[in-house]
Specification:
homodimer; about 350 residues; alpha/beta; TIM Barrel; 3-stranded antiparallel beta sheet; 13 helices; 15 strands; about 35% helix
Chain lengths: ~350, ~350
Amino acid sequence: MKLRYNELVLPLEFAFTISRSSQSVARTVYVELTSPDSAAVGLRGIGEAVPSAFYGEDSETVRHFYQQLLEDRALEGLAVHNLQNLEERLARYPDNRAAKSGLQMAFQDLCGKTVNLPLYKLWGLDSNRVPKTSYTIGIDDPKRVAQKIELALSRGFDVIKIKLGGANDLETMKIIRRMAPEARLRVDANAAWGVDEAVAKCEALKPYEVEFVEAPLRLDSPEEHYRRLKAASSIPLMADENCHGLGDIPRCAELFHAINLKHTKTGGLEEARRMIHAARAHDLKIMLGGFLETSISVTAMAHLAPLVDYCDLDACLLIANDPYLGLEFEGSRFKLPERPGIGVVPRTK
Amino acid sequence: MKLRYNELVLPLEFAFTISRSSQSVARTVYVELTSPDSAAVGLRGIGEAVPSAFYGEDSETVRHFYQQLLEDRALEGLAVHNLQNLEERLARYPDNRAAKSGLQMAFQDLCGKTVNLPLYKLWGLDSNRVPKTSYTIGIDDPKRVAQKIELALSRGFDVIKIKLGGANDLETMKIIRRMAPEARLRVDANAAWGVDEAVAKCEALKPYEVEFVEAPLRLDSPEEHYRRLKAASSIPLMADENCHGLGDIPRCAELFHAINLKHTKTGGLEEARRMIHAARAHDLKIMLGGFLETSISVTAMAHLAPLVDYCDLDACLLIANDPYLGLEFEGSRFKLPERPGIGVVPRTK
């Protein structure tokens, strides 16, 4: 198979601030695969690698990884549909989960296009079962938070995810709940709190009726802190940075009520699917999330939405001008594309 | 979708005796699905329900279930590829796992035929990764066991599964190991033993170098017996009757080293696939098994073989004249068909 790639530079609509960082531009890598297979003639599989510095990747390491694959002829003789073989080839290289994920996305896009089916149909899923998606409000001063909420509500979002872990957590919650009394609210602390603060915050969040608190504890927290928080909190807790691959599921089931799956972590849609099934065996709730990315990556993940409980798939709405068209949003509701593969096409102005 | 079905009466090559029963004929139910969808015109999805009295089903209950579906118009408006919707419709009916499994098999066969791909390709699997299958030797007197082993070896089988739980367990093992010193041996006790006997048998089996012991304990054994046996046995233990659906996986991971998946138990290939992924999260080993069935059911299950460690897919070789052609065996090795869907066709004489 033939691999091409190039960097995408994506200015954000607003500077995006979470508990540990702030940024105004995102850089991802566009990937394209073609195959000499007769069934794939004239077709291009497209994907997007969404690296995060937090996991040791950026657009440069991704491009370096792809360059390495080219030099190693690592995709030579790879057959369309043999995803298991692709995973095996990629498993020979350590790390680089976002890069692997982008490549696998392009591969699966090509598979879907080869049989002229959108991914969700190829996977036997029911597009009528997609949950609503949340819209994300980054950490900001209360006045700016209020402006963003107004914008989100005017765009029809009735599920809102709020980044906490800043200085004004409860004031922020008060503003949002007042402005959006009917909205479903979720909280993401991005691993900002120690256990005492987390226990106190979960208690203080109770009146705001949040669906769950994501990544409440600092990453260096010992397991015992997770257990203490789980025992104390009446709000369900969701794992983010604690949940990367299939092997993490049993432990997450002990320490959390739910997990968040992202391309940046799983190394591919197929691993995400495996994790969904394993999570179900443990009655874990599941969310599909993303980072700062275009409609390619968001839409690819969305094809798994019929299998999950929550979606946090607004990433492509946080960038200022998404070059691609995939999911169609109507506020928090979205529709999976019926086009083959991921179903994403360049956006025409 | 349109559903048709009829009973298959399958005489066995040898009377099949396990610890709790003996039979000389098997009865399964052939299922056929057609869809008015334009992509499926002229195509027939075929499947086979393989009921077991042990799970409260027989060919009559299966046919009764299908009749009920027809009366309820339960498949009306079901779209090709919407497997999730089929599962949801079937979940409204309790029990009847074999019947549901046969129907889902026909549905997936139709999906594969619609896109002209064998199931393993539709699922992204690598046909080069199928493990060998075992050949099963039922309980019998030592002389007959020796004859069967001779037959198995002459047919090229070098992986053999021996049913124990009868009067001559160790004598049987002695004969088999002497006749087949190089063969990979597996033992299935079909839940025949109490914990003391099981501990003793596992100890006594050690010199015969068996890969695992399946279903060692009586089904009324308390959990504590399973824990005791797991702690005592140096031979890996495999769950059969303790492992039906996805929710059983975490507990099986505590009590066993491996699981056996069968249509008769899972209620469908898709549940089997989910169970495989959940089992991997727990480092459980996985075997694909069967009951007494034709190549339809065996071949359908075999498409999952690239994902597992062990295969026990000789069921269609135990019946006297399999009406269908699917897997091609060369002793313990088999090849997945390249025909679309399950890839089974009527056997021409």
